[in-house]
Structures are given as C-alpha cells and as structure tokens.
Amino acid sequence: MPRKRNSSSPPPEASLSPESVQMELSTDPRPADGEPPCEDPPSVDEPGNALPVEPPSVNAPSVEVVDRFDVSSDALQTSPDLFPNGKTTTRMASALPIWEASNILTQRKDLPWGADSKGKLRYARNVENGEGAVHFWVTEQIEDESPATLAGAAALAVIDTFDIRAACMHLIYAAHATQIDRPWEQEFVISDRQIEEYLGLKKRTDKNKQQKLALIQEIAKQPCKITTFVSWPTQSRMKGFTIEEGRLWHLLGTRYHYQQDLFGNKELSGVTFIVRAGLWARYFLNEEGRRNKNALCEYSTLSKSSLRDVMSVWQHREGAARLMVWLLFKTRLERQEPMSVMMLMDVAFGTERIEQAKQDSQSRKRFANLWDETLHLLQVRDWCIHFDPETYPPELQPLGLGRSRPSRPRGFFDRLLQAQLWITPLEDWHDSSMTVDDTDELASVEPGPEPEPEPETGLTGGQIKAMRLGYGWSQRKLAALTGLSQGLISQLETGGRSLTPDNREALSRIFELNDPTTAHIEDVLHED
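Predicted structure:
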C-alpha cells in the first residue's frame, strides 16, 4: 500500500527534467476494496444521528494514491477559470457554513470560541433560534481524512496563523465548487496562475515569483484546517438533516512544477492544487436535492474586484477587509434591513476594541476616527453607503460624507453605537434577490463589448505630493484614505516606484472625492 506523504512542503528537487513536475497526494479518503467506510462519530454535544457518507460516484474524477513520481506538466487539467472572457463576476456558494468559515479566517480570536464537551475549542452558530446549529473546530493536520481537532492553546495557535487573504482563497473554493455537479464527490483543480489572476498578484511588483508561490501555498492550506458539523432543522417542506463532522475543504493533492536552467539548477515555478468540498456541499450545494426537497442549493455572487479589494487593504485597513468579506454574505440575506454601527464595529474590530473605546474620551475619539476612515475607504472602493436619517444624522456621519464640522456633539459615541446604515456593493455586480434560476441565466449571458479605456490622469509623483499638501494631508493620511501603504506613497512621490493602474485609480478617486468644498476632510484622521 502506498505511503502517505505530507503535502504541505515541496518534495526534494531531484531526478527532474526541465519540463517535469513532482506530485504529492494525501491518502485517498475512500476505503480500499473490502474495507468498511469510516464512520467516526462527530465530536460535538448531542449531534443527533449523522447521515452516512455517500460513496463517490464511479464517474467522479479521482486522484490515484501514489508515491512521489515525475509526471508531464500538462497531465493535470485545471478547472475552468472563474472569470472567463472578461467577466467580472461569478457564482459562489453562500451557505451558512461558508459564511461562518470566512468569519473564522478574518475575525479569528475575536469570535466567541468555547470548549465543547470533549474540551476541544469550538465556535458555534445557532440556526432558527437554537433549533439547529453549525459548529466549527480547527486542526493542524492537512492530509488526514479524519483529522484530530485541537483544544486550548494549540487551537488558538492555529487560529492566530489565519491570514485574512486565506478568506479570499476560501471564496475562490466556494466559487469553483459551483462549477461541478456533485462537489462533495468531484474534485476541482486550481493552478497558481489562476490564483494570481483572481487575487491581482500579477501586478504586484513588491514580491518576486518565489514569494508569491509561498504566499499562495500558505493561504491555500488554511481553509482546509477548518472542520464543521451541521444540525439543520426542518424548514417548510424540507426535512432537517445532520452532517457528521468533517473538513470544510479537502486538499487532496499538490503538484509542484519546476524549471531548470542550462546549469542544471532547478527552481519552483508553479503549484497546482486538487481540492474537494466537504460533505456539507451534499446538503447546501445540491441542485438535485433542492428539487427533491431534501437539500439546499444556495448561491451568491463573487466579483473579481471584491477579491482584489480585500487583498489590497487587508494589511493597513484590516477592519475594512473584514467588513468587505462579511458584507458579501450579509447584504445578500438582509439587504432591506439597516445594520447597526455596533454590529459592524464588532465585525471589523472586535468587541474588546469597542469596550476599550468606552473608557475615555481620547479613546472614543480615536476609535470614531478609525470607523470614519473605514467608511471612507469602503466608499472609495465603490461600496454604496446610506445613513439612516433618524439614527445616523449628519452630525454623527464622517466628515465629507455628511458632517460639516470637525467637532462632534456631546454624547456622540453612545449615539453612534446605536446608529444604523446600509452598506451594499455596487448594483451592477450584486443582486441580493438572485435565485438559482437567475444565476443559471446570468452564467449563460455572453459578456458585452469591452468598455472604452478611460483617459490617463497623468498623475506624476510631483503632482501627487502637491495635491496631498494642498489638502494639508500627511503621507499617513493619504495612505489611510486610499488603502495604500505610507511607504508606497513616499516612493511614488519621489519616483522610486512607478504608478500602477490600480494605484492611479485609488489616488484619483480620493482626490476627486475631496474637492475644495470638502477639503476639511483632513480632520477625519487623528494624529496620535
């Protein structure tokens, strides 16, 4: 029987031709002939009767269990691109397990984790007022079909390593899973080149090829460290169901592609991932089951711009990145209802930050400024913001978005926490009323003609500096409003870095937004 190998690190670079690659695959989760299927009980409190795992279809693509071997680089065909022919949106699975897993990857320890009956660290989300629940654990094991979930400090250590950018990979997986008929049985295959395109990494000049590949490998693994158990209540004509604990995503294999120069030196040049959705997809991404009233099929829309927005702001504006991911799901479910500022602040910054802000006036002012910066950044990134006129009057709104004076009214913070607003993506790429039939029709629509290119703004480093100083902004303030780093702003002004189209767009938007009639917006940022 083949030996099981760890697929988390590249294999030794030996016995390779310039056009060959090496492959590592985890143990095939299907039992060998004559062996009974594994039916380990879920590690939860009173999980109910878990449905047996349905064996994969004989027609489903499979990955042979092998030791390392050389194989032609074109032997493994990747899945179709998510955004072909200039498309900017695609269909994405949007079930509750997918949403909450994205929250785990973005909010990490700010979620209410607690110990289950076995002492394992668990995050739980109730369904239908506690009639059902979705539970999550974390593991360090990538290759095992039934991994050991973690408790206490070990679990927190894994959660600490979660990278917000891994949430983008999670969303990419959720989109690829919709491209196949039975995603709980069939694999999809993604290459590093596809991932670079989805995340906008091709335009990144601050990372070389090896650094990009290292990042892609790390964030590709993190969603596979989450396991889930689902107890779903009866709803309308659909019977309830229970899904035994299992991985959210299975990383079934990783192929490493190498290039060799004339001197025989080999260098990693590409990575391909083989992924399969967990058993949750049988109940939340099952078109046939939806028609038979024994499963759901829940879709949403993922835009390429939303992935790239998160990738561009996550480091310097983590709160905005958290909100972007969370709102992709929230606005689909409850677009008509406004959201409270306290709830959004909790998502963006965590409850502990809110409590700290209540302690003294300076903390409140800094925290309110941070919230205003986040709203400005969302608006610059084309999110539509509408303030509830009764609970969120202009005197509470950010400078430049409603408030006309730098000072805030007495008792503003308590009022701000209770204020309500709507934040939605642009209407041209998101429709919260989209049904399964609508998304099928959307997928069949041919893309329209390419838009005419916008004229260049002609921004130079000297002009950027002059406009910044004209508004009285420091480099730090301009960086906060655009989502770019302060170091990049400095290099752009001095000519040390070239202005990319994305950077030009971000700078142009913020300069156009803040015309002389709203030049007082510099007070939105608080200098320590």
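Summary: The radius of gyration is 25 Å.
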